[in-house]
Specification:
mainly alpha; 6 helices; 3 strands; 67% helix; 8% strand; globular
Length: 144
């Protein structure tokens, strides 16, 4: 198999496997009412401070309309809180509820375990090369 075919196979299976493994690992009985996509919305909202819908949509590379559908669902399920700005009532700030914060840390723990398991298998040189290659790949995907 040539380089092109190998890279194609590795990238396609890697993307599929990470999604499948993440779905199985983070959607537990405690978080059975949300999807993998919901978990990524929760991650984008974060725990630092409330964010407006535009900034979250931009981070996720989705429209505000698409994000609104997800946020409405997460509000209904108790993961997300909405609050209107006191200065401009048109602006809505989104933050995580206590339940949302628990989901955020659960998702974060999965990613930490995933990275730790990869890092421990690589030499320092391999790790540097992997970071460099993945950074270039990420730049290409973001520009697409």
């Amino acid at each position: 198999m040539g380089t092109y075919e190998t890279l194609n196979e590795v990238l396609v299976s890697l993307f599929r496997d990470v999604n499948d493994i993440e779905q199985k690992a983070i959607i537990t009985s405690e978080f059975s009412d949300i999807t993998n996509n919901d978990m990524h919305v929760i991650d984008a909202i974060g725990i630092d401070r409330p964010k407006n819908m535009s900034s979250i949509a931009r981070e996720l590379s989705v429209t505000v309309g698409t994000l609104t559908i997800s946020v409405n669902s997460l509000v209904k399920k108790g993961y997300v809180d909405r609050q209107r700005s006191s200065e401009d009532r048109r602006v809505v700030y989104i933050s995580l509820s206590e339940k949302g914060v628990k989901a955020y840390y659960h998702h974060k723990k999965f990613h930490e375990q995933m990275i730790d398991s990869v890092v421990k298998e690589l030499t320092e040189e391999e790790l540097e090369a992997l970071v460099k290659a993945l950074t270039k790949l990420n730049t290409w995907f973001r520009s697409f």
